[in-house]
Amino acid sequence: MNLKIKSIYYEIEKEYGISFKQVKDIVESQFKFVKKTMAEGIKNNPKSFKNIQITHLGKFAVRKYKLEEYARKEEGRRREAKETF
Question: Is the pTM of the predicted complex or chain greater than 0.70?
């Protein structure tokens, strides 16, 4: 963890009277949620991937071209696997 983030965590700790670990857990929980929600998307089904908006931080979304690129790579791997056998 870099010093800037650490100092912000300590400021929050003092301001709200909670432990450093609690501050860290609270901050990291939103990113764990984003990761979990994005991972629930189904391959080759762009509509199954949810967009997530976190106030003051931004929007997390899977871009259409990234899904298409992923699908192309996956198709290439399947072809290679068939050719090997």
Answer: no
